[in-house]
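Quick start: what a row looks like.
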Amino acid sequence: MGSALDPRSLASARRSNRQLMLLLPMFLPAHALTLDLLLRESVGRGLRFLLLSNDAFRSLLKNVYISAMTQLQVAVPDSEGRVMLWEQYQVRPDLPTHLTRVGCWISRAQALKSGPSSLSLVPETGTDADEGLKDTSLAVSGPLGFLKDLPQDLHERSEGLRLLLGAGVLLGPREELASRRGDLDGTTLRCMADDFQPLTIPDYGPAGDYRVTGSFVDIMAILERSLNFTCSWSRPEDRAWGALQPDGTWNGMIGDLIADKGDVIVAISRTLPREEVVDFTLPLLLDRHILVLRRPGTANSGISWSSYTQEFSSGAWAGAAMMVLFMGSCITLITRYSRSSGGHVPFTESILLILGAACQQGTKQDIQGTAGRIVLLTALLLGTVTYIHYTSFLISALSVNRLLLPFTTLAELTRVDSHQLMVLKSTVQEDVLKLSTNPVYQKAWANIQAGGEWGSVATNDVGFAKVLEGKNVYLTTESEYSYQYGGDSRILALTKEKYIAIFVSVAVTKKSQLKELFDNRLVRMRSAGLLSKILKDWGEARPPPLPNAAPPLSLAKTGSAFLLLAAGTALSLCALGMEVLVTRCLKRSALASR
């Protein structure tokens, strides 16, 4: 037995990817001690064990900790010439021991003596056939008579039996090991979760107890019922998800899991650095990141001074002003040098005359001659064209809310450099932008660093609040945006490009038996369509988007026009006051001269 347990031979067999089974005796306390030492050493992990023993194996294995995912069976002969197969495991050393009979071996003579009168014999050609008995190895279909003599707990394993005519019938478990481990003895698992809506939605009860709901919590509830455990919820003190620090340690929930402050992290994205220190279940959701920003024209403070000027660009306004000045100069020149003119019109009066004509207003000035009339007609056409373009865009800008976006992609954002980019700290997106060799991601990370403490925000609520404040852009997942702010018309998602795809799953401590137990149940849930239904139901539970109707005009948009009109009225009153003052001064001067 010494050579069989040689660590070098075991390591060599493991490197060759062969399924290695150790056949060990279990009759003496020394045998139990050897097994215990082997199970505690790393060399014994991943091996299969078959122990040959008698009825004393229960007492011999009493102090041996056999974890739930250890593939160990005990073969014990009984008084009727059969060999019973037993499995023993514990969830934790301080929890009860589970002992289950999982199979039975019956000799060839017993099987043929009590078997069916006629066997349907099919040559065995599969890879599982015993090489030495390939000619006499036959598969059995139909009922076997000896089953009535077996213990009741083995009757359900009667399907798919194999009869080896040179040996006997082996009645063993057909399901995988994780499927046979369905009881965690009601143990309490320390589950950690943070804000990742709608996967995990944190809240606090009236007594200050931490509570979590969401799609992944519903999945965990099914696992609780299936595996007989309960969850106690907590969140990390530093509110971080888990990032590798310069000193080689981990912060956030990953750090707490490594430090044995928790057993499970519910809803966390997988990365290669994280997979080196913790284990992940199979992926449950594929998510991507998008850019969100405040919708243009939805400023929540003050009056919008651009509501009545954004219709034309600065160049267009300058062009219109140049046309008015040019036409006013033409009127002044024409009325000064034309013989058919009714009198000279000063330049200032000419400007007012052109503006009046552009606004389709008549004038008392006697403009005679072809040249003058052409200029007035041109001014009228200028006013008409300008009015048509201005009003059409004004209606669209005030009612339809046409979007004038400064950028639509991350690359354009880095070129424009007009907004501050933000990410959630200690997350996958922060690590990807920090370590990526992609030039766009490198510029994006420089933008984040330039923002100081607001480049990496602590929570999603802070990120979305900063978006509503002004020129800030938040890189977040599609699921979080859709569930939390998909119905908020103030926030706009840029979906032209999507970034940083992530797989979200459940994390457990490294080499934890929970991984295989969870994966086994999650595969069943996925096959039954239960996972997709839960995720879909929570996705549809988000608030409905606002109707796509034109909103009524607000004071924020019309206030600037009202203030300008009031200023014009006030200017006319000032002009009236000045006129009255000048008139009185002239009268006093006239009286004084007399």
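That is the whole record. The chain is about 40% helix and 20% strand. The two ends are 142 Å apart (CA to CA).
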